[in-house]
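Hi everyone,

Forwarding the result from last night's run.
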Amino acid sequence: MNLPSDLPPLPGIGLKPQHYSAVLQPVSASILPPAPVPAWFEVHPQNYSGAGGPPHRWLTAIAERFPLSFHSVGLSLGSAGGVDVAELEQLAALCKRYEPASVSDHLSWSGSANNRYPDLLPVPYTEEALGHFARQIDRVQDRLKRRILIENPSRYLAFARDDMSEAQFLHLLCHQTGCGILLDINNIEVSATNLGLDAQAMIDSIDPSLVGEVHLAGHAREEHPDGVLLIDDHGSAISEVTWALFARFAARAGRKPVLIEWDTDVPDYAVLLGEAAKAEAIMQGQTRFASLDALPLDQVHACA
């Protein structure tokens, strides 16, 4: 049985302030390629921490017309001290105010007892870390009174004494807590390239029935003497490798809510609509990728 989701199994777009007006306007018939109005929008709830003002007026108007997904970046579930209580209470208040269709956070940590870091740092894939992370998910789900999704990370290093793979860790979290997976396919490409892993095997190891949402994004590429480094900056078009991995997953998983995630160097709204249209075409089977092996070797990086 598939993980139930209140988001429609259609493309969505990350909501940006520069696009507020465009979101509430009818889509122009002149936009090419044909791009349907996104079926839903995702926001980072930390950007709406104030009590009122223009951000909330816009978000209220958009929430009246579209389902929302809250993608948190601040709970720091993997921190040794546990979930950030202030962040959790703020998230709970926003969930009560807007009733989002989906709530998610990351398989990561972002702070210690005395410091907060502007990054999503990886956790070791060990039994001890699994137990700790599961307890924090339980705390969040109990407070929010809803299931949450956990996103696979983009990684730049791996721990030497991991007990299990990333997919095994995520699957066990789902079975122990009832949470679901937010599958970020760009993060699969980034992690596979940086760590010398097999991206196709990573995609194939994910149980689609546990996936409640999919993310597609771009990344930066750096050339170094010892190899390629991919940076998960969400600042460019989705790569051909990520598209191919998405097509591979969609062929097995069927339709899912799919987000076009573009957070830096944000383009015109029409560009995001075009990316959403491409995701829809792939889910409809109109655009196919035979294999990553069909891509030029300099695009496949370490993924093949």
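The chain has one domain: 11-23+33-300.

Cheers,
N.
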